[in-house]
Amino acid sequence: MGANSGKAAIFDLDGTLLDSMGVWDQVDIDFLGRRGIEVPDDYMSTVSSMQFRQIAEYTIKRFDLDDTPEDLMNEWTEMATHAYATIVEAKPHALQYLAYLRQSGAKLAVATTLLPSMRVAAMRHTGLDEYFDVVCSVDEVGDTGKEEPDVYLKAAQLLNVEPKNCTVFEDILAGIRSAKSVGMHAWAMHDDSSDLDWQTICDEADGIMFDFSDAPVRL
Questions:
Q1: For residues 2 and 175, is the Cβ–Cβ distance under 8 A?
Q2: Do 27 and 16 fall into the same domain?
Q3: Cα torsion 32, 144, 129, 15: sign
Q4: Cα-Cα-Cα-Cα dihedral of 30, 32, 36, 40, to 10°?
Q5: Structural domain that includes position 77
Q6: How would you write 127-163 as a 3-class SS string?
Q7: Where are the alpha helices (DSSP H) in the chain?
Q8: 177-185, long-range: CB within 8 Å, 24+ apart, which pairs?
Q9: Tell me, what's the pLDDT at 140?
Q10: Which GO molecular function entries does the Swiss-Prot or TrEMBL record give (predicted)?
């Protein structure tokens, strides 16, 4: 029996396992650049909490574009999928930590908001796809975002591990709160995208990491 047998680790992708938050900044720059527009200072912070379609509608209105929301979403998806398939890297020590957890007997899942095309491309490109028993996405739980615990509970159910024996690794405050609300442990990965919430994250998470060399040895 390994140190973590009977336990599960559930990982977010964007900003936790993947050093990928810069992808979306670059998509914004390239997308607006194609139209001869510079990204305004407040644009990225304004859209960061919006859903995909809302961002498309807001962008069309703000820049008086002729495109439909579907046009924008398709263009962004294509640009981001290419980036996830070619330039995104795993966070430092992520692969070693996953290998250690597997060897220790833990079950492993991904719980992500990433669209399937991006998720598959990124996991294949970085080599993360070899390590997981289960990959769960919010599109499998009725598009319920991470402000609700549904995607984490779905991962636990598929792994056949009780919530109290699961540890969630996340970079956003909403995800940490959701995981803890159903009795899971939650470790926070620092990512620049969550700087505004970092103090609260430190107060509420069971542990914090700057890369996976800081990750817990026992779940």
A1: no
A2: no
A3: positive
A4: -110
A5: 22-85
A6: CHHHCCCEEEEHHHCCCCCCCCCHHHHHHHHHHCCCH
A7: 21-34, 43-47, 52-63, 69-86, 94-103, 116-126, 150-159, 173-181, 198-204
A8: 177/147, 177/204, 178/146, 178/147, 178/148, 178/149, 178/152, 179/10, 179/149, 179/152, 180/204, 180/206, 181/149, 182/149, 182/152, 182/153, 184/10, 184/149, 184/152, 184/156, 185/219
A9: 86
A10: phosphatase activity
Q: What does the pLDDT read at residue 217?
A: 95
Which amino acid does the sequence have at 190?
A: H
The reply to whether 41 and 76 lie within a common domain is yes
Q: Tokens 């995208």 label which residue?
A: 193
Which DSSP letter does residue 87 get? T
Domain end position, chosen among 85, 104, 131:
85
CATH number for 110 = 3.40.50.1000
Domains identified in the chain, total number:
2
Decide if 1 is inside a domain: no
126 near 26, Cβ under 8 Å?
A: no
Per-residue exposure over 70-80, b if at least 16 CB sit within 10 Å of its own CB, e if not: eebbebbeebb
CA distance 66 to 194: 33
Name the pTM for this structure: 0.88
Please give the Cα distance from 38 to 48 (Å, whole number).
18
